[in-house]
UniProtKB/TrEMBL annotation:
Keywords: Cell cycle, Cell division, Mitosis. One of its GO terms (biological process) is cell division. Pfam families: ANAPC1 (PF12859). This is Anaphase-promoting complex subunit 1 N-terminal domain-containing protein. PANTHER family: ANAPHASE-PROMOTING COMPLEX SUBUNIT 1, MEIOTIC CHECKPOINT REGULATOR TSG24 FAMILY MEMBER. It comes from Ciona intestinalis. Residues 67-178 form the Anaphase-promoting complex subunit 1 N-terminal domain.
Length: 233
């Protein structure tokens, strides 16, 4: 039995979020809501906002399959669009430019239930906190499926981020080291590189960032070497 291969005309992929962002007010809606709360005039509020509120070429998106349906996170400037099966579920907008976005699932097993105010499904077990995490220059904004909103301050600049079953992983940007490397000796550079931990974990938005350690040939150390990198998570 022979198989036949049929060549079809290629079609351009248009993200669902791109279409939604065309009619989205973007960061203007935040300033409008703030003006209503403090009684500021709409004209005065709009005078502080530009229509072009995002750099060119910053749009990006991520895809995943959830319960046999394709989901999409579309990032455009200050706004993230979450869609499922070409249907927009939610949109999120923050004051700062969003650098990265990812789905996040935070496990609080073994934590104090009073700290997170979570119901127990079974004795000693607690449900995970699922939602969307948006990384800006100075904070991580987490919007949960239940409607909660957490803002966690970033103690460092983020180069990249990943989601995994224990929360979120972050790679620290080594911008200060790169700026000063030209004026430093090789010994000073080695000391600085080995002093700065590069990989951190956030297990819950209410917790602090924890450095990640690695074990290689029986030796345990922080992930702080220049060649340490995460290829897949």
């Amino acid at each position: 039995m022979s198989a036949m291969i049929v060549a079809l005309e290629p079609k351009e992929f248009i993200p669902c979020g791109q279409t939604a962002c065309v009619n989205h007010p973007g960061v203007i809606c935040l300033h409008f809501n703030q003006s209503q709360e403090v009684g500021t005039s709409l004209l005065g509020t709009l005078s502080q906002v530009t229509l072009d509120d995002k750099p060119k070429g910053t749009d990006s998106w991520k895809l995943r399959v959830y319960k046999n349906v394709e989901e999409e996170l579309y990032l455009s400037g200050h706004t993230v669009v979450w869609s499922r099966g070409q249907t927009v579920l939610k949109t999120f907008t923050v004051d700062s430019l969003v650098k990265q976005v990812a789905w996040g699932s935070f496990s609080v097993s073994g934590e104090d239930p009073c700290q997170f105010d979570l119901p127990q499904s079974k004795p000693g077990t607690y449900p995970s906190v699922d939602g969307v995490a948006m990384v800006t220059d100075d904070a991580v904004h987490v919007f949960t499926d239940d409607g909660d909103n957490f803002v966690t301050a970033l103690p460092f600049k983020v180069r990249d981020s990943w989601n995994f079953k224990f929360g979120l992983l972050f790679e620290r940007k080594r911008e200060m080291m790169e700026k000063n490397k030209a004026n430093m000796s090789s010994f000073q550079t080695s000391l600085l590189e080995n002093d700065l931990t590069t990989i951190f974990c956030l297990q819950h938005p209410l917790r602090e960032f924890s450095p990640v350690i690695t074990k290689t040939q029986g030796s345990v150390r922080y992930m702080n070497r220049p060649h340490d990198s995460i290829v897949f998570c």
